[in-house]
Design a protein that fits this description.
It is a single chain. The chain is α+β, with helices and mostly antiparallel strands and 99 residues long. It has a single domain, classed as 2-Layer Sandwich (Alpha-Beta Plaits). The protein has 2 helices and 4 strands. It has a 4-stranded antiparallel sheet. Strand 2 and strand 3 form a beta hairpin.
């Protein structure tokens, strides 16, 4: 018997496979994402918002992200520091292409 696994949510969102970024938080409302991103920018972080459309649920979410890195290890090292500084979980993802 084989077990079918579902692809990760949003796996079909186009990505730049040679660039990495750090996901901080995702918000349903753009205004909420902007508020959070603005706080990060005021704290000196290179924050930006990426709009993500999820075909599976036909939803749009606004991802608050930091930086663009050449390799996973560099992004992961910064993500670990950010997690401690911000007191919240972060993770590394590919830089995604809005569509």
């Amino acid at each position: 018997m084989s077990v079918k696994t579902k692809p990760a949510r949003g796996a079909d969102i186009p990505a730049q496979k040679d660039r990495f970024t750090i996901q901080i938080i995702s918000k349903k409302q753009l205004k909420d994402a902007r508020q959070f991103a603005d706080k990060l920018i005021k704290s000196g972080y290179d924050s930006y918002i990426q709009k993500a459309y999820f075909k599976e649920t036909e939803e749009i979410w606004y991802r608050v992200r930091i930086g663009s890195y050449d390799n996973y290890n560099s992004a992961k090292a910064v993500a670990d520091v950010l997690s401690k500084d911000l007191g919240m979980a972060t993770w590394v993802d590919f830089v995604r292409i809005e569509y």
